[in-house]
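Entry:
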Amino acid sequence: MTGYGRGMAALGSQTLTVQVSSVNRKTLDLAIRLPDEWESLEALVGEQVRKVAQRGRVSVVIELTGAAGGAELGWDDAEVGAVLDRLADLADTRGVSFTPTSELLWSIASSQRKNAQLAEADTAATAVRGALADALRSFGAMRAREGEALLIDFITRLATLRAQVEVVAARAPLVPAAYRGQLLQRLRQAGLELDLDDERVLREIALFADRCDVTEELTRLRSHFEQFSALLKSDGEIGRKAEFILQEIGREVNTIGSKANDLTISRAVIELKNELERVREQMANVE
């Protein structure tokens, strides 16, 4: 599921900013970016994020900016100039043309900025934890709103699936009788006049009725629909469980399709497969 959250906290004369964002992914892929000096806080951040996210590519960016409301940049102009002079001397020694660009200046200045004095990781931990908590609250609220929209979509699509299953259920008992009529018509066209009570005709119709019987599949489908509906109303992670149920629904639909020897049922199966694929695509976004 997609989401975004931002949290801020004061850390000395600087401002700590934490941004959390996510895009859809079936598993949890957590990427954390923070100052190198705070690498020991990565486990703390990961633990806090995993409490609210079990799926998706989640990105956490932790940054420090200058004094709140001030314009402190955190680098020394003389040091940046010294680096440029050394690069110019090196280029001259190698016989290489050297023309500083704005990108190079920004890169050198940023590297000097990183070297600015940072609070120790232990000191920063409380501020990081608080700002991250604020970011995750906003992040979770945004994902919850998306989840509500998805829930409505799932309920609507489940109703469509149920309606198509009832089409199959209504048509299935009529298929053997229709087959009997088709069989007798073909026999007459072939010049074979057989009575409806002929043992060979009855045996063929009985075998066909057994082959095309989908009673068990319909019963299992209705059960899976009930499980899926209950899962949608439950709390906590549902994504992986729902994917398993959808897989079982797909199996039953495929079996009905392979047994169907009827145009109406075949059309209903196609609709079931199309709608089921839409549900699967949406479920890939859900935790």
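Residues 77-114 form one domain.
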